[in-house]
Amino acid sequence: MSEWNINVSSRIIRLPPYLFGQINKLKYDKRRADVDIIDLGMGNPQDPPPKAVVEKLCEAVADPRSHRYSASAGIFNLRKEMAKLYESLYGVKLDPEKEVIATIGSKEGFSHICLALMGPGDTAIVGDPYFPIHVYAVALAGANVINVPLGNDQAFLDRVAYVAEHLYPKPKLLILNYPHNPTAMTIDNVGFFEAVVELAKKHGMMVIHDFAYGRTCFDDYKAPSFMQARGAKDVGVEFLTMSKPYNMAGWRIGFCVGNSEMIRALATIKGYYDYGIFQAIQIASIIAMRHCEADVKHQASIYQTRRDIVVDGLRRAGWEIESPRAGMFVWAKVAEKHLAGQGTIDFAMRLLDEAEVAVSPGRAFGEQGEGYVRVALVENEQRLRQAVKQIDRALNKGIKFPSASKKKKTGGRNDVEKD
Ligand SMILES: Cc1ncc(COP(=O)(O)O)c(C=O)c1O
């Protein structure tokens, strides 16, 4: 035993338990045994970024000037390009100097803005189910989370208002995410966000809207930006990512836009922690935003086709599922007979074991997620059809999938640890 007394901080100790641990271990063990797991667990994009973006990256990498420390807030031309995109997509004007900042993926930006805005004694309101970092980042900042059942209507806002009216000290922050991960919940129009702004102003709350799936919309749906709501810039910011619309997840680049004081607070924290994103990535991202609109639409159409395969297939297998109109996920209620008195963590373990398909248990996204699983649309059409077939056979026909000798077929490993 070491003589040293290693004591991790209370920041780590107060983190909620990591509920993907057991499943990830089983997935890892199966992979080690060469089992061909169809991995619909994590929302890790498997398609390539636009060709022009990769070419620009290679060109920029070859430039000796790209390799110095960059600007922590992002180079000005990148922020200007994001402001231009906002104006063309949403009709919203942003000052690239004060109202736009680049982040090392939206997850980093989200985590650090929580650190910049929240501390012990502060409270954030987060809908349940939730994307885990929306809770963890607040906890890591030393602040508290109050969960209210998630919704996209006045009833949800009434629940938020109730907390704001009864909690002392008042909650400081409201965290939103539409299109939502994991539930795929969307809002109809910007009127919802206008009611959010009114509520935030009434109770003195700041708002963070995570807009990671804003560009992944199906059929005729167009997700509204929080920034389109009158007065949004007075109370909040919005996070965007290059990960999903441009398949640049591993590149680690995203943005925060909106309220200049909140952005300044984020810039201050980032200024201490980082030296900016690799400049070649920033330059290639300018090309993505400037020239790759068709690729973004094409990628959304790929997810739409995959959505139809999963939704239609599972419905045929007896599942009751709403077809999502945005995002990368199908949020599926598990029939009581399949749960057989167990929770969805056990159910997901069973699917992994007997159907060789990995999905995320709803419980890992909060108490309100119990009873559901999240299916990520991150494998190709043929693999998704196969996944549905294997699920149907395992659950409805009792046929297990003993494919232990099969070699892995998946192109990319989709086994990164944290969602
Ligand atoms: C809702 C939501 N926000 C943020 C992220 C993280 O995105 P990024 O790659 O920009 O850190 C994800 C990734 O899955 C997400 O689903």
**Cα-based radius of gyration, to the nearest Å:** 22 Å
| CATH fold field value of the largest domain | Aspartate Aminotransferase, domain 2
Structural class: alpha/beta
What number of structural domains do the residues give?
Answer: 2
β-sheet strand percentage = 5-15%
Major beta-sheet overview: 7 strands, mixed
Using the alpha-carbon principal axes, give the shape: globular
Protein architecture, described:
- The chain is α/β, with parallel strands linked by helices.
- It folds into 2 domains: 17-43 and 295-396, Alpha-Beta Complex (Aspartate Aminotransferase, domain 1); 51-291, Aspartate Aminotransferase, domain 2.
- The protein contains 15 helices and 12 strands.
- The protein has helices at residues 10-13, 21-32, 51-61, 76-90, 106-117, 133-140, 154-166, 190-203, 232-235, 260-273, 279-291, 293-316, 336-339, 344-355, 381-396; strands at residues 38-39, 100-103, 123-128, 144-149, 173-176, 206-210, 236-241, 254-258, 329-333, 357-358, 360-361, 372-376.
- The strands form 3 sheets. Strands 2-8-7-6-5-3-4 form a 7-stranded mixed beta sheet, sandwiched between helices.
- Strand 5, helix 8 (190-203) and strand 6 (206-210) form a beta-alpha-beta unit.
- The protein is globular.
- It starts with 9 loop residues before the first helix and ends in a 23-residue tail after the last helix.
- The structure holds pyridoxal-5'-phosphate.
- Pyridoxal-5'-phosphate binds at residues 43, 105-107, 131, 177, 181, 210, 212, 241, 243, 249, 254.
